[in-house]
Amino acid sequence: MPVINRIADFASDMKAWRRHLHAHPELGFECHETAAFVKERLEEFGVDEIHTGVAKTGVIAVINGQGDGPTIGLRADMDALPILETTGAEHASTNQGKMHACGHDGHTAMLLGAAKYLAETRNFSGKVALIFQPAEEAGGGAGVMVEEGVLDRFDIKQLYAVHTLPDLPIGQFATCPGPIMAAVDMFHIDITGRGGHVAHHEEAADPIVAACAITTAVQTIVSRNRSPFDDIVVSVTQIHTGSADNIIPETAYINGTVRTFSKEVQAMVIRRLEEISDGIAQTYGVRTKLRYETDYPPTYNHPAETEFAVATAREVAGDDAVIADFPKSMGAEDFSFFLDNRPGAYVFVGNGDSASVHNPEFDFNDDSAPFGSSYLVRLVERAQPRG
Fold first, then answer.
1. pLDDT, block means (10 residues), the chain with 387 residues
2. Contacting residues for 279 by C-beta, under 8 A, at least 6 apart
3. How many CB atoms sit inside 10 A of residue 340's CB?
4. Which of 37, 50, 104, 109 is least surrounded by CB atoms within 10 angstroms?
5. Are 352 and 169 in contact (CB under 8 A)?
6. Of 242, 257, 249, whose CA–CA distance to 286 is shortest?
């Protein structure tokens, strides 16, 4: 079964919706105009329920099928990035310094397309909850929705999401069971020494030397402490200290990121950061304080639901157009909060030959929207067939 004919019929509508959203990007939880646009479309489609103000600006729509049954959730993220767009497109951002550089405008358009079709046909049992979520890029809007109880409130039994992927051909899908995206954490190390004049360095305790030693030692976590079978990133990304060329400063600050796929590896990294910081503090006569912040957990695709998602994508795109063992990514995704609480799967849909995401030249390829929208519709119809 290829792209659904009815969805192909309103592909131009999805293109118009998407380009409107692209021209009016909003950040984080401040997706007020985006949410209003989504609500207006949903009202036009005749969905049964619209709930606004979820996680501040999120929108959840409910469509009733024919007959009793469970509720399946479909999610699209709505927020943009703080990037100055350089595409030169006619539909380029009109909000200076804000840009849809990760395809969330396309994700929203695809879910709106699915909503239009499902509200027309209702060829399923139970209910579908359409989740339009803010703050995926920063703030963890999915986690806020979970904390607000939306999964129980709407009795959602399983959830699915799509994400555009540059360089994967249009009409192709890719995913894998198990972890598909990494957890992302941050660490901060404050170093306090004893400042002084460089001419009398022996009277000081230099936090710069300690900061350099910590930075070098942190690199050994990946090279010497991890198993060759574990994927992990530990990177120092900031060092701040000093004010003049003849002053040994009092303090230094180190910041970095950690990306892992398991709690065991994450715990190892935290332990080693503590040991390295404490050991070098003693060695150089300074004091250190480690602050470790966990952010998004790993995005874990549940095996049975991933197998179902793969079979559904093959109905839409064909057997050869679906990669079922796609390599996992060190990127992060807050759909992980949903998958930590309900079974489901996260699938990439091809954006064709394009700039990478989070790039000022990126633009969602509107030709992929009918494929993504058809896939979302078929998930509902296959998971909850009409009795």
1. 88 98 98 98 98 98 97 98 98 98 98 98 98 98 98 98 98 98 98 97 97 98 94 97 98 98 96 98 98 97 98 97 97 98 98 98 98 98 94
2. none
3. 14
4. 50
5. yes
6. 249
Find where tokens 């999610």 sit. Answer: 75
> Kindly report the CA angle at 69 between 66 and 72, in degrees rounded to 5?
100
Q: What is the pTM of this model?
A: 0.95
CA distance 191 to 202: 18
* Cβ atoms 59, 35 nearer than 8 A: yes
In DSSP notation, 94-127 reads SSTT-B--SSHHHHHHHHHHHHHHHHHH--SSSE
b vs e for 125-162, b when ≥16 Cβ sit within 10 Å of the residue's Cβ?
bbbbbbbbbbbbbebbbbbbbbeeebbeebebbbbbbb
Q: What separation in angstroms does the CA of 208 have from each of 192, 212, 250, 251, 345?
A: 10, 6, 9, 8, 46
Give the torsion sign (CA, 79, 81, 85, 88). Answer: negative
Give Cα separations from 362 to 75, 216, 356, 358 (angstroms).
Answer: 22, 35, 6, 7
CA distance 117 to 121: 6
Whole-angstrom distance, CA of residue 326 vs CA of residue 323 = 6
Q: Which of 243, 316, 254, 311 is nearest to 288 (CA)?
A: 254
Neighbouring-strand partners of residue 80: 27
- Beta bridge mates, 323: 174
CB neighbours of 156 closer than 8 A, spacing ≥ 6? 71, 72, 73, 129, 150, 342
Q: Are 353 and 94 in contact (CB under 8 A)?
A: no
What does the radius of gyration of the chain's CA atoms come to, in whole angstroms?
A: 24
Name the β-bridge partners of 58: 54
> Checking DSSP bridges between strand 183-192 and strand 251-260, what pairing results, if any?
antiparallel
DSSP 194: B
Q: Of 347, 353, 342, whose CA–CA distance to 146 is shortest?
A: 342
